[in-house]
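Hi there, hope your week has been kind to you so far. Do you reckon you could talk me through the fold, stretch by stretch? Thanks so much in advance, here it is.
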Amino acid sequence: MRSSNGSKYLVPHSNVPPSSKATMSDQHLEEQEMEAEALAAIFDTAFEIRSSSQPFVWAVKLVPVDCGGDEDEEEAANHVMVKLVVNVPLDYPEDSLPELDLEIVKGLSADNKKELLDLANEEAEANAGMPSVFAVCEAVRTWLADNNVKGLDDASMHAQMMRKAKDAERREAQAKLQFESQKKTDEMTEAEAEELAVRKRREEGTPVTEASFNEWWAKFTAEMDKKKEAEQSTEGDTKEEKAMEERLTGFEIFSEKAGVFSLEKLEAAAEELENDTSPMDPDEIGDVDEDLFDDDEDLDDLDFDSDDDDEEDSDDEPDI
């Protein structure tokens, strides 16, 4: 092309630098190779690579019933078969969709092929931007399983009428199933209806009016008064229990009057006296609290000799 002054200039095809294009191309190639490995692992011999260089071409044989590679059993169990042909663009999967085609292997008409190909392209569009060949294969296989009947490739008027009748029956069955499912959903139990009402009230909330607030306030104050009374009652019981715990025992009262009173020390002293036969040093006895022996009663008035006198009298009696 020429500019207004007649000089030539080049028109770039893209604003992306060549290095970036190479990087993106390498990324696409890696993703395509990984997808091919995954398809080969899933479909085994049913997966075929028709072109091993870019742009790749893949083909997958799809049947309604997988017979594990037994060709005779597969032929008997499957009345319809196709091969999904995938032409992989260079910028697939991020920037473009796979180019799809179908090869009829068994039992399908041209109309069936068109319907099935439309379904495959819809599934590819639904998975745009990601590897989609497996999802397309599953959609095609599901259609084949639903239509695994003889005579779909029969173009006669009678065969077409029979197929239309079967399609009508299938649509009617699907509609009935959907109706029953909706009916079951609508027929909620009483508990489910109550739960739904509770959820709805929680979402919407309760409008506050003067009457509703006064009613709530009366209940709230009554609950608080009742709670306060219970706390006061519990507090009184606690004070009484605390007073009982703080009361002194008889032992503690005696100890306070008599000084420190330790049973362990007394037992240890008694044991030491039993083991020690030497006379005790008066200095080791320690201080004696004379108040313990202070008594108002006069010990002099007590008769300590009565028992001795009786014994003497008994000795003086003559023998008979």
Summary: The radius of gyration is 54 Å. Confidence is low (pLDDT under 50) at residues 1-16. The longest helix spans residues 210-246. Residues 35 and 131 are 7 Å apart (CA to CA).
